[in-house]
Predict the 3D structure of the following.
Amino acid sequence: AIITDHWFKQPYMLPMKYSGLYRVEDIVAVFYEKKPTLRGETYGPLLFTVTRDGEGYYCKSYNTEFSESIIREIAKRNPGVITVRHITVDGRNYDCATQPKEVAELFRAACER
């Protein structure tokens, strides 16, 4: 991964499908899970990213410390970023991994306030 003041390049992304290149300010959520379960299936370690346009991406991550350092660096540059998978807003629960569009919409609405 590469992080500059304004850009984040996810590791291991296939350029023909996803560039993995995002403006840090456009990242709504970034979080890591060692053994995430998605739609009933358990995976190996993944680093998740949700962008302002409601797209959710994930990439394999083999190192907890490395993933957590990426999250810390993005949070320094974008203090409003969500750094956990599950959030509750107005009494309703959201899963950033499976509801990226809804989470991005909440983020955009909060920024407009």
In short: The helical segments are 64-77, 100-112. The two ends are 32 Å apart (CA to CA). Strands lie at 2-3, 7-9, 21-23, 27-33, 37-38, 41-42, 46-51, 56-60, 86-89, 92-95. The mean pLDDT is 88.
